[in-house]
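Agenda item 2: shikimate-3-phosphate complex prediction
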Amino acid sequence: MQPADSGASSPSGHRSAHHSPAKPLCAGAEAPLKGRLRPPGDKSISHRSLILGLLAKGRTTIQGLLEGDDVLRTAAACSALGAKVERLGPGAWQVDGCGVGSLLQPRDVLDFGNAGTGTRLMMGVVGGHAIEATFDGDASLRKRPMRRILDPLTLMGVKVLSEAEGGRCPVTLRGSSEPAPIEYRTPVPSAQLKSAILLAGLNSPGRTTVIETEASRDHTEKMLAYFGASITSTPDGAHGRRITLEGRPELTARDVIVPADPSSGAFALVGALIVPGSDVVIEGMMMNPLRIGLITTLCEMGGSIETLNARIEGGEDVADLRVRHSALKGVDVPAERAPSMIDEYPVLAVAAAFATGETRMRGLAELRVKESDRLAAVAAGLDAAGVANRIEGDDLIVTGGAGKVAGGGMVATHLDHRIAMSFLVMGLASDKPMAIDDASMIATSFPSFQPDMERLGAKFE
Ligand code: S3P
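Presented output:
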């Protein structure tokens, strides 16, 4: 058994993402994609399983944990806050937790690397405890807005001891042993924000309520209920939710099975749709209704996506998807779908580049504050590949080449794993290969991307 460590080399042997040298990579069109692929464990659920393990009393076991750098950072933070975190084998971990209210003061800076989710959720955890912690990460993380988290935490009694300009990392917080119960309407549809408030509310003597106008992924709510918290979620308005958590539950350690990440499966899914002759089965894809906006959209575009063996695993809807090359057509993607596919727009833009006609993706303001400014990065990547596109307000409009994309460009990835993988997938079907300036960040979410895609027939060099 290996303890989770917070140093530069992780239990799976990957060097810390933001210390890795840039690794250019190129993808060219060779052969159809064929065969089966199981994407790695869901990143959102992986972070949460470790965090809930920390906050529960007893031993939580986790199967199928994503061993990407982002999640390993969260494992290291859980150790720094007092949990005993051990890796038993590939994807198999156990966490001996401390219980709500009993976390330790971390000795060092909590370094989250590239991970916004780990940072923001842990700010909530620390916020509900009378401890001080400093949150920091790589150049990408240091650009991301944390004010959205610090504002509600301040209302709950958390003190922001220091922050970089505009509420950015490094941020030092002193949490409260008695966070005030609040009712908070989130100004942006963000599961990270919702989760930070709920996690801080765990140690509140009263009820914490979060209201969201657009429902975001509900993994925190589901997992809190699974670990024994009393939490309700009811519809609010046309697309929203009102979530109420009773403070100070006794969380009990559980066994967690992590389903395959639909945001990682998305790359093989789009690859199979755009590379002629492809026929791929993606196994164990989580089909949580708040995560499948991409699949809905690709079906509307005419994608051949067959759902096989639908089942429930680890409390989530799961299915195998058979995906075949398809002639896609442009569609209008409504803004209210954005939270259910927020991480999938870069790869949807790649699908749109191969479609016939225009695809308009509406309401993408949040893409500007992801691991990179994804709206700008996608537009620049499409430009490099010779794909007509424009940004109008917060909408991205892509004019497809009816199965043909020139390609041949070099894409700047800006420390963003999803920009890297999306444009490599484009290269599998474009006339000329696509190159990216740096593939090293792919290890944050999908360490086996290259060998997994190569097994399907992709060629990278
Ligand atoms: C995540 C929520 C999303 C998503 C991120 C993971 C989560 O961010 O982009 O990759 O696990 O809660 P926002 O909640 O900020 O939209």
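Discussion summary: The pocket of shikimate-3-phosphate is lined by residues 44, 117, 190-192, 195, 216-217, 342-343, 366 (CB under 6 Å).
Owner for follow-up: CH.
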